[in-house]
UniProtKB/TrEMBL annotation:
Its job: May play the central regulatory role in sporulation. It may be an element of the effector pathway responsible for the activation of sporulation genes in response to nutritional stress. Spo0A may act in concert with spo0H (a sigma factor) to control the expression of some genes that are critical to the sporulation process.
Lineage start: Bacteria, Bacillati, Bacillota, Clostridia, Eubacteriales
Species of provenance: Clostridium ganghwense
Keyword Cell inner membrane: no
Chain positions with 4-aspartylphosphate modification: 61
One Pfam family per UniProt: Response_reg
Protein name as it appears in the record: Stage 0 sporulation protein A homolog
Amino acid sequence: MENVGRIINNIKVLYVEDEEITRIVTKKILKKVVGKLFIAKDGQEGFELFRKYRPDIVITDLRMPILDGIGMIKKIRDFDQECGIIINTEVEDMDYILKSVDIGIDKYVLKPIEQEEMLESLQNVLFKVIKRKKDKNKLYEILKLSKEEKKKIEDEIKVKVPSFIKQSTGKGPRDVQVFCGGSVIEVRIYDVLTPMEKVLLDDKNNLILVEYYRKLFYKQIHNQLVNLVKAIIKTEIIISKININVLENMEQIVFEIKFDETFKLNYL
């Protein structure tokens, strides 16, 4: 337990809470036990701090203005699947708690929280974070690329994926970013909506309809897209995630090396 305590003393924690008194009390508790502490007053500020500092563990309320805890957690999980997430909320937030379990929290604790319970929660979640990072690093050992090989793959994907999308829809993206690391290739596509889809979005009631069209499009081209990237990296891969953000006109496709049959498609 002493070793775990020393590790906790060096971790980065993001605490998100809109209620001032609760924030002040919990801040005092956390400052005693963690290495670096970042404080946010709502989910939007919390997500911005997360992207900037990439904390090891996030502790958050659920009911908050601007962006609630559920929305923030979804955004965080799009960026990071290894960090720990603890929700600290009220008893009557049971519906919110159930929703948060579905999007990847590690633990929930009820308000008010005492120092002993906070320390125990941090320890339990830290074990999960360490295990996830170890498992991920094992996967990363399977595919090691030099800087030159990585850049060559990224550059080829930047050329071929937009060309393929343009051939399929008649509209190519304005920009494509590719991040290749270990067993994962992430492709971010910007300004990809067709003129017809943009016209539909003039009426915000069509938001769900356009999102449905985009999901359907990717399901139809799924095999071709996999084969295209597989030919570039010369390794068996799958699409593990597709995120579609119609309002920001941005889409994210995550490819992973295919290790076994336990992988499943996750169209969000």
